[in-house]
Design a protein that fits this description.
The protein is mostly helical and 161 residues long. The protein has one domain (4-158): Ferritin. It is 86% helix and 0% strand. It is built from 5 helices and no strands. The chain has helices at 4-32, 36-63, 73-88, 92-123, 127-160. The longest helix is centred in the last third of the chain and has 34 residues, at 127-160. It binds fe (ii) ion. Fe (ii) ion binds next to helix 2.
Length: 161
């Protein structure tokens, strides 16, 4: 990597790998969630995530780069941690509270990744691509806010019982 263009390319590939891994992991989180709103949140974010993956493919197509070729080790680690947690949760309430915690770690990781990608796209003069990446960034913020509301609303309180 020699310049910002190379670094931008690397970031896009990293995000692409992250989205692909998340598409595989979200159904397991949905399946293990007990609260219907939480299940719904995972299901709708799965559809969003598939669209985000497609968005990255389109962006890479425009830039004439291959989106694959990177393995996002951070997302791999976050998913491993979520899977380990699922095996350790002893009851429904703890499962839901912990799934929210794991999912928010994932969202925060993606928010930081897309935030960087938007900035690089702007700096490199790719205004249209920056707008596309911003759409994903907004979706990740919304997903995180939705999880926040679920945690604040009831799920953490129920887990105290
Ligand atoms: Fe995403």
């Amino acid at each position: 990597m020699k310049n910002l263009e190379d670094l931008f390319e690397h970031q896009l590939q990293d995000l692409y790998s992250a989205e692909k891994q998340l598409i595989k992991a979200l159904p397991k989180m949905e399946k293990n969630a007990n609260n219907s709103k939480l299940k719904e949140a995972f299901a709708s974010h799965l559809e969003e995530t598939k669209n985000q993956k497609k968005r990255l493919e389109d962006i890479c197509d425009q830039l004439d780069i291959d989106p694959s070729g990177e393995k996002c080790k951070a997302m791999e680690g976050l998913i491993k941690e979520a899977e380990a947690f699922i095996d350790e949760a002893d009851n429904d309430k703890i499962m839901d509270a912990g799934l929210i915690a794991e999912a928010q770690r994932v969202e925060h990781y993606e928010i930081s990744g897309y935030g960087t990608a938007v900035r690089y796209a702007k700096e490199l003069g790719h205004a249209d691509i920056a707008k596309e990446l911003q759409k994903t960034l907004d979706e990740e913020y919304n997903a995180d806010n939705k999880l926040d509301k679920l945690a604040e609303g009831r799920l953490n309180k129920e887990a105290m019982a």
